[in-house]
Amino acid sequence: MSATRALDARDPNGDVASLFRLHAPDRRLATDGIRTRLPAGPAATLGERVATFFATPRSGPELLVGALPFDPHQDDALYQPERFSTPGTGSLPTTLGPLFAAAELPPAADYADAVARCIAVLRDAPAGEDALRKVVLARGLRVEAAAPIDPHVLAVKLGSDASVTTYVVPLPVAPGEAPAWLVGATPELLVSRRGRAVVSHPLAGSARRVGNEAEDRRRTDALLASDKDLHEHRFVVEAILDGLAPLCSQLQAPPRPSLHATATMWHLATRITGTLKTDDISSAMLAGVLHPTPAVCGTPRLPALQAIRDLEPFDRGFYAGAVGWTDASGDGDWYVAIRCARVQGHAMHLFAGAGIVADSQPALEVDETAAKFMALRNALGIDDARAA
Ligand SMILES: C=C(O[C@H]1C=CC=C(C(=O)O)[C@@H]1O)C(=O)O
């Protein structure tokens, strides 16, 4: 069965473009239809816009789902779905059809140059609180298919790694354009809120997982002992603690990170937990405050955003943004939108980034981003990881 026919078969109303899916290890959410869009805006006003939305009596699910773009000043894309749907995979085809990696954006050598320039800037940065200390630089890979790519087939394939949260989020497109989605398998929880309980599980500092016990042990021992990776990680934990502290009556994080494994990567991870001071702090507001963390942007945030604009030859769009949901009570889950691709028609753009600090090495960051492509490449059946 072709991918196109599969879409048709699951879409008697022509509404496949609006299927949303978020499958976490402990919770599954799927919706379809777009009933009302939340007026779009920047991350700083997200909490307020969501509060106004739910303060207005309306029919339909008391739920907003969607995505925040990487750049917190750009418009987000949240909406109230028509209905909850039961995610079924029975009728899906198991293959995506012939695919080929068409282009690296930028080529690996240019990415290494950008990392080297970034390291030079970080080394020259004056000492002090406001100095640039970390920048996350990403690169892309364009993949093409013979037929339109079914984002839900890709998500099902990504879901074979039980340690990640897979997602398919419909993205806004210009009138007349083919539907587009962000599809991925993220290991990173930006923030979750249930009542007053808040959890964040940031990752930063990585090693490729090779599947050989002795070699993986060597890599994880090195990762846990690496000053460079511990620094990279500490910036993220500190930014999240700084963001949450004014909103929480209590907040805790272990002093050192632990290991978090996906099928293809090892990461340094810290589980941060807290209790909100008041009931009116929604998960959307928390996501708006915390995003983008130094796991995807850098430290301090604004100079890091500027460095990314200067050094990356593409607009990230919703890659390295956040995907998730919030309900009328303020509860919700927001995940960091990494290990993903923007899927549209016959093409998809894969993205992978790595945190750069003063003692990073360009060749190792090329390899780390190549390793981060593997979750999607494995799902797509495209090998040759190290080249791109
Ligand atoms: C920015 C990405 O990963 C982040 C999350 C985990 C580890 C990271 C790192 O070690 O650099 C990154 O901060 C990505 O996968 O595109």
TrEMBL record:
Q: A single Gene Ontology molecular function, please?
A: isochorismate synthase activity
Stated EC number for the protein is: 5.4.4.2
**What's this protein's family per the entry?**
Belongs to the isochorismate synthase family.
Q: Which reaction does it catalyse?
A: chorismate = isochorismate
Q: Which InterPro entries match?
A: ADC_synthase (IPR005801), Chorismate_C (IPR015890), IsoChor_synthase (IPR004561)
Q: Which Pfam families match?
A: Chorismate_bind
Q: What is this protein called?
A: isochorismate synthase
Give the record's keywords alphabetically.
Answer: Isomerase
Q: Does the keyword Isomerase apply?
A: yes
Report the enzyme's class at the first EC level: isomerase
Chorismate-utilising enzyme C-terminal domain location is 109-372
Superkingdom to which the source organism belongs: Bacteria
Q: What is the lineage of its organism?
A: Bacteria, Pseudomonadati, Pseudomonadota, Gammaproteobacteria, Lysobacterales
Question: What PANTHER family is this protein classified in?
Answer: ISOCHORISMATE SYNTHASE ENTC
